Each structure stands twice: as structure tokens, then as C-alpha cells.
Amino acid sequence: MKKSYERIFENNKKWLESQLVDNPDFFKTLSATQSPEYLYIGCSDSRVSAEEMMGMKPGELFVHRNIANVVNTLDMSSTAVIQYAVEHLQVKHIIVCGHYGCGGIKAAMTPEDLGLLNPWLRTIRDVYRLHQTELDAIEDEQKRYDRLVELNVQEQCINVIKMACVQEEYLIDEYPIVHGWVFDMRSGKIIDLEIDFEQILKDIQKIYNLTDSNWVMSRKNNKNLI
Ligand SMILES: [Zn+2]
Questions:
Q1: Domain 35-104+156-224 carries which CATH code?
Q2: What parts of the sequence cross the membrane (predicted)?
């Protein structure tokens, strides 16, 4: 029986050959370095293909995906990706992109024991708790589900903005800007939730201001002198 995954290697051969037709140096350039302008934080869902739906080529998008696009301060994976993207790759934009029909969000709306998933889903259940008045007022279950997808994106954007590296880098260079988007699988459209990054930053810095250090100020001053 022909192994089903063999088609992946066949696809890969066709793909690399097609790249070389347009640009014989494609892989030479690709292997030299990377300087993506965007960090994309999205869901692991197999139907949400970041590069494809955004029309991005290899090298243009730094990607982190997990169940329901969660950014949790105790999760070393997402926080390491964000720190690396901000400090070393100097990305200009951080996009948190959720999607309607998200299984992780649906599971979090189900008040029952889901074993190992419980600690992960708790971050999303916390989003529900924070916005319970608004969500419980939505009678239509589908609309409530869609709204939790949007609110989860908004709260994960806030979790990104809480990070010291994001605040420090923004103070120094006026980037990265954090964006909240939702992919609508029913239409194929990406919807910009138009999160007000500067206002959120200003609001949360009343509690989470992590930039008031001599180190940041001296870095900013040195930069202004150059
Ligand atoms: Zn999902």
C-alpha cells in the first residue's frame, strides 16, 4: 500500500521546482537570513493556513500556533517566540488571529472536565469570566460563540502588550504594533477587530508598566543620539 504521506514529498518536489523556475537563486536567498515584518500568533486548526490566506511567501511571516491562539505568561513556548521576534527579528507588527468555529473556544464554553486540556482552556474560560455579563446577554448561542472568539483575541492581544519586551521595544522604536484579527472560515475573509493598541497600552501601563527602568531610558537616549 502506498503510504499516504508520500504525496507530501511529491508535492515538495513540485513546489521547489516551481520556485526555481521564477527565481534560480530562491533557496540561496532563503537560506541566507530572515527578516520577517510580522509575527503571526494563530490557532493550530488545520483549516487556518496563515501564509496561504495572507498571501505571504517564505521569510515574510514568523509564526506561532497553538490551540485557540492563547498567549499565557506561564507558557514558555509562546513567550519565547514573542521575545525572539521582538528583540532579535525586530518585527514591526504582531498579529493575534483567531477564527470563528474554533474548537478550543467551543471546548472552553463547555463546563466539564476535559482532562489535560483543562489548564490550557482555563485561560479561555477566564476570558469568558471577564466578559460574562456581555456574553450571557447574547441569547443566540452561535453569536455568543463568535463573540467569545473575538474577545479571546482581544484578551490575548492584551497579554502580548503586558510583556516587558513589547513595551520596551515600542518605547524605543515605536513598534511592534499589536493587531487583533479573526479569520471567518464561512467567507474566507480576515476581519480586523481594530484593537486600539495605543489606548490599551496606555490603560494597562497603569498596572503593568514594565518600561520604567534606567536600562530602557538609556537605550532610548543612546538611540536618539545616533
Ligand atoms: Zn481554533
A1: 3.40.1050.10
A2: none
